[in-house]
């Protein structure tokens, strides 16, 4: 099998982004534009070369992928010049696939098609037909065969009428590409070395240019400013939502759903509006997520209800659990089977046992909680002494009265009870009642103050 080398052009500054970040580091669905292109390239290329220039260190440090061969283009003298920089690293009997670092939605099937055509014909070009072709290189055909690409600034009035344009993406036999690149000159309106000129050279050389035309303008759309970035973000989200629904996920409104990472799900799951999924999230069967939830890097079991306005990160939620509304589940929380975490409850680095309930206004941190525990409203595990974090252990069946502070390190034994309003500083053994309250007093002659 022929080796395939990806060459990703990423040297441009992207002035219209008005950003300190190089354009290819802008993100779409939480992943850099260059990252999207790399993912596609790495699926079919044995080696990927990234031509970088502006903000080079920033690009290299951010992407930091050791399978990439980084090629610096010190001066940006045109797309042909950019590709020239990569060629010394590429063997003649391979295929070179040229991609743009700012065209993030390119599809694998299209690239496969292009590479297959290049293997058969030597040169394959990806074009698209646009209602408004302004700015793009026009595809010049004769008897249907591609003859040349003429850039907007070099085109005559008749050529400017052509709506089939160059996407910039092409696959070419590497040996041929080297020969053509050596023949480029900058004799054009922009004084640049145009990669596009290799097409006419190949035609002169007797080659037939294989043509792949995409009917999806988004897959070849470049990002030049934040308006276009937002447009492609929506397109990406819409495509992803459609795919999820086809696989059986119910989305109440696909236009109000964002997945910035990966989501896997079982049968009969339902996601309501304004839910954001980040990182890697897994849902079991028959699980529902109510409106306005943010869920990141979390595994959620079967028959779970995530109620409105809950924020969950780096957690595990067991089968049958109920979370929220207004719950905050922080990293390393492990919520057991059929457990209930209610409103305004924060859980961090804690295990909540099977069937336990923390229903209202609590903070549970650095805690190991057994099964069937009941935590009253407003309970706080005081895990931090100002310098160090300490553990709280609450054993099976314990009952913690409302408005209790458990001063860690502390252990509440099995089936122990803590009276409401207590500040517990010492361990309470199994079945005991722990209580720390001052006696209630009644002042006989007390009078409510009156306004003067
Ligand atoms: C290029 C094509 C044009 C095509 C259009 C599609 C040429 C001469 N023209 O035009 O036919 O319709 O793309 O968007 O190829 N880059 C470098 N180094 C350089 C110059 C460019 O890395 O020296 C990179 C840019 O960062 C960008 C890509 O190459 O990602 C395209 O460059 P750009 O200047 O946008 O090309 P266009 O003039 O738009
Ligand atoms: Ca461009």
What attributes does this structure have?
14-stranded parallel beta sheet, Spore Coat Polysaccharide Biosynthesis Protein SpsA, Chain A, binds uridine-diphosphate-N-acetylglucosamine, 452 residues, binds calcium ion, 8 helices
Report what the structure shows.
The chain is α/β, with parallel strands linked by helices and about 450 residues long. It has 2 domains: about 5-220, Spore Coat Polysaccharide Biosynthesis Protein SpsA, Chain A (Alpha-Beta Complex), CATH 3.90.550.10; about 250-435, UDP N-Acetylglucosamine Acyltransferase, domain 1, CATH 2.160.10.10. Helix content is about 20%, strand content about 30%. It is built from 8 helices and 39 strands. The strands form 6 sheets. Strands 13, 15, 17, 18, 20, 21, 23, 24, 26, 27, 29, 30, 33 and 36 form a 14-stranded parallel sheet that branches. Strands 12-14-16-19-22-25-28-31-34-37-39 form an 11-stranded parallel sheet, with helices on one face. A 7-stranded mixed sheet has the order 5-4-1-6-10-7-11, sandwiched between helices. Helix 2 links the parallel strand 4 and strand 5 (about 70). The chain is elongated, with a radius of gyration of 31 Å. The protein starts with a strand and ends in an 18-residue tail after the last strand. The model has no long low-confidence stretch (mean pLDDT about 95). Bound molecules: uridine-diphosphate-N-acetylglucosamine and calcium ion. Uridine-diphosphate-N-acetylglucosamine binds next to strand 1, helix 3 and strand 10.
């Amino acid at each position: 099998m022929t080796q395939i080398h990806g060459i990703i052009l990423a040297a441009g500054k992207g002035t219209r982004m008005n950003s300190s970040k190089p354009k290819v580091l802008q993100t779409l669905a939480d992943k850099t534009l260059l990252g999207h292109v790399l993912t596609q390239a790495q699926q079919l290329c044995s080696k990927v070369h990234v031509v970088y220039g502006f903000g080079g260190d920033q690009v290299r440090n951010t992407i930091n992928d050791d399978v990439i061969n980084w090629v610096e283009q010190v001066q940006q003298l045109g797309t042909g010049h950019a590709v020239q920089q990569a060629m010394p690293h590429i063997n003649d009997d391979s295929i070179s696939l040229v991609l743009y670092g700012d065209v993030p939605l390119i599809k694998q099937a299209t690239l496969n098609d292009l590479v297959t055509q290049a293997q058969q014909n030597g040169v394959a070009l990806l074009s698209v037909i646009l209602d408004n072709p302004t700015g793009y290189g026009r595809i010049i055909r004769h008897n249907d065969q591609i003859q040349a690409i003429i850039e907007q600034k070099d085109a005559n009035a008749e050529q400017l009428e052509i709506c089939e344009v160059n996407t910039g993406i092409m696959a070419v036999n590497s040996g041929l590409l080297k020969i053509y690149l050596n023949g480029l000159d900058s004799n054009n309106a922009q004084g640049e070395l145009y990669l596009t000129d290799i097409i006419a050279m190949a035609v002169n050389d007797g080659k037939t240019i294989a043509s792949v035309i995409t009917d999806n303008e988004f897959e070849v759309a470049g990002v030049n400013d934040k308006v276009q970035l937002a447009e492609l973000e929506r397109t990406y989200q819409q495509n992803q939502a459609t795919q999820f629904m086809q696989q059986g996920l119910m989305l109440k409104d696909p236009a109000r759903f964002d997945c910035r990472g990966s989501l896997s799900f079982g049968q009969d799951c339902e996601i309501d509006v304004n839910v954001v999924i980040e990182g890697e999230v897994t849902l079991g069967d028959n699980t529902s997520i109510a409106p306005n939830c943010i869920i990141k890097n979390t595994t959620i079991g079967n028959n779970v209800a995530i109620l409105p306005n809950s924020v969950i990160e780096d957690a595990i939620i067991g089968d049958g659990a109920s979370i929220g509304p207004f719950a905050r589940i922080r990293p390393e929380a492990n919520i057991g089977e059929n457990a209930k975490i209610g409103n305004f409850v924060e859980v961090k680095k804690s295990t909540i046992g099977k069937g336990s309930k923390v229903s209202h206004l609590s903070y549970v941190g650095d805690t190991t909680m057994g099964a069937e525990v009941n935590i009253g409203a407003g309970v706080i595990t005081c895990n931090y002494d100002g310098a160090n974090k300490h553990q709280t252990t609450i054993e099976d069946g314990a009952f913690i009265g409302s408005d209790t502070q458990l001063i860690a390190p502390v252990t509440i034994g099995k089936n122990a009870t803590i009276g409401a309003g207590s500040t517990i500083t010492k361990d309470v053994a199994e079945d005991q009642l722990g209580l720390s309250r001052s006696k209630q007093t009644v002042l006989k002659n007390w009078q409510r103050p009156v306004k003067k």
